[in-house]
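WARN retry 2 of 3 for item q-0093 after timeout on previous attempt; input resubmitted unchanged.
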Amino acid sequence: MKKAWFHIVFMVCIVLPILLLVFLDYYNMEGYNYRFNPSTNSLEPWNNTYFNQNFSFDVTWKGRMFYLIFAWFLTIESAISWKEVVDKKPRNRYLLAAALACALIPTIYVLATNFFGLDLAVMKEGLNIGIPSLYSDNSPSDFLHLQWPISLEYLVFFIFFTSAIFLAYKTKGLKMFSISLALLGAVGVSYMFDTIFPFGVFRPLQEMTLPTAATAAALFDILGYNVMLSYPSHVGNSLVPTLTVGSGPNIASVGIAWACAGVQSLLLYVLVILLFFKKANISSFRKLLYFIIGLFGTFFANVLRVYAVIMTYMYSGKEAGVFFHNTYGELFGFSFIFLFILLIVCIERFMLVERTKGVFAKITANFGKAKKTLTSRIKRNTDTPPL
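OK item q-0093 returned
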């Protein structure tokens, strides 16, 4: 324990702001209690219902559930590389202090935004860069009052956690904790992209929704539903594919932006699997094969996500569909990625390919022996003259 004290304290510093947010969120003690007033063109005090009537750790899309998954992955990577991280402790006192201070900055950020007025500055900056502040009925938009603070929060956590790990363990640390950091960074970047360019305005990502929407439409058609795929449909300043599905009196019509189609999970898959391959001792041919299979698997997980959201919307109502989208939708792609990597580990660890080849070789050999024996018996019976 004496040798590992730095890493234990370091991990506590990283997990601390997440635990603090869980406490503040659960007891509705968060900041950002301001709303934009168009008549005065300024922010005024307001009880932020987006934060204070919801527990954001239950939500995957523009929520904080991925903080918990990040902490879980970080703990697993720390346990796997325990000896290395303990031996790599900084020898320089100033470097050690800088790493711990950098890891504590996200905690300071959480305290400052919730108790010391930084939340107002964050919201003003959101207004300055054009984050939508109002809906058409002049009610506060969740883009400015919820999604912008959370997106920025993810990026602050990612930047300072990455910097702290680099200061503590250099590039070796970035490799050891690459998957957890990649998850945190990818989620933060995808959230921020969708917050700044809402409803699929960012065209390069939006174009990637068409294959998912078309495959989902084909799936509904195969299953006997009435389906219509329309493109392009105007949603604000963006062009999105619209999928309308019906079965008897039940009808659901949704516009599919890149985030709804799970494009971010495809990008996350590419990032995570490449980092995993750098750690794994696997042949280049198998890496390529695994990569292609996983890419198609992630794509079809996103198709099932669209299917599940529309089915929930069609049979349980729009509110239930939105809840399913925000709470469970992100888990489709993420769960597949995690299970697929676990499957690769099992295949390589227990040499399942080699064992399967061995079983087939034995079956083929036994079949060959049986065929040879049968042939020899038939020949013997043929050569024996009748009495």
